[in-house]
């Protein structure tokens, strides 16, 4: 099983994610994510034996308790890129500072600690709470992406975060499909 821990965006934000992607639709070389599967990854676990799911769920429960985070509101907006505007591989929209960002980061840090204790690899980069909207396969549309990221600041909306989820990613010809394996309430 290819697994990750996430906060899923609700259906109510699907259209807003699609609208944000539309601002980039003329950029060649971009591959857009499915707005109906929009999520914020707290921890990518990778290929994992299905027998480990119960211990991962326990780790998620411990992480929620450790983070001390109850249900909270998060606001999604703006654009950003990884790793930089000069070399773009991912285009994302983020959790706004002060609007769920601190809670999201605390959840990530707790999930990170708990899963590393289980033997999963430690993240090698700083956590930025984000929702991937596109991947750049080649640089043909780089100038347009740079301009949109620097000049536009869309507000996608606010949603209530009530749980974190263990998701399975299945790669298909139509792109990845994400299914919830289990969820842990905040």
Automatic annotation (TrEMBL):
Record carries keyword Zinc: no
Keyword list, A-Z: Hydrolase, Ligase
Motif segment (HXTX 1): 39-42
Organism domain of life: Archaea
Motif HXTX 2: chain residues: 130-133
Active site (catalytic residues): 39 (proton donor), 130 (proton acceptor)
Alphabetized Pfam families for the sequence: 2_5_RNA_ligase2 (PF13563)
E.C. designation(s): 3.1.4.58
Signal peptide positions (record): none
GO molecular function terms noted in the UniProt entry: 2',3'-cyclic-nucleotide 3'-phosphodiesterase activity; ligase activity; RNA 2',3'-cyclic 3'-phosphodiesterase activity
Residue stretches spanning the membrane: none
Major enzyme class: hydrolase
The reaction(s) this protein catalyses: a 3'-end 2',3'-cyclophospho-ribonucleotide-RNA + H2O = a 3'-end 2'-phospho-ribonucleotide-RNA + H(+)
NCBIfam families linked: 2_5_ligase (TIGR02258)
Role played: Hydrolyzes RNA 2',3'-cyclic phosphodiester to an RNA 2'-phosphomonoester.
Family that this chain belongs to: Belongs to the 2H phosphoesterase superfamily. ThpR family.
HAMAP family membership: RNA_CPDase
Protein name: RNA 2',3'-cyclic phosphodiesterase
């Amino acid at each position: 099983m290819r697994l990750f821990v996430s906060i899923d965006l609700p259906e109510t934000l699907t259209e807003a994610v699609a609208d944000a992607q539309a601002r980039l639709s003329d950029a060649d070389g971009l591959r857009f994510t499915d707005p109906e599967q929009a999520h914020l990854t707290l921890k990518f676990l990778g290929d994992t034996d299905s027998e480990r799911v119960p211990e991962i769920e326990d780790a998620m429960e411990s992480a929620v308790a450790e983070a001390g985070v109850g249900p909270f509101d998060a606001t999604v907006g703006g654009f950003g890129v990884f790793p930089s505007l000069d070399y773009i591989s991912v285009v994302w929209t983020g959790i706004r500072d002060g609007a769920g960002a601190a809670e999201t980061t605390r959840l990530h840090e707790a999930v990170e600690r708990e899963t590393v204790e289980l033997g999963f690899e430690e993240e090698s980069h700083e956590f930025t709470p984000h929702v991937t909207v596109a991947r750049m396969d080649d640089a043909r549309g780089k100038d347009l992406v740079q301009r949109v990221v620097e000049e536009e600041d869309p507000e996608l909306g606010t949603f209530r975060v009530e749980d974190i989820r263990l998701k399975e990613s299945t790669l298909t010809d139509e792109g990845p499909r994400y299914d919830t394996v289990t969820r842990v309430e905040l």
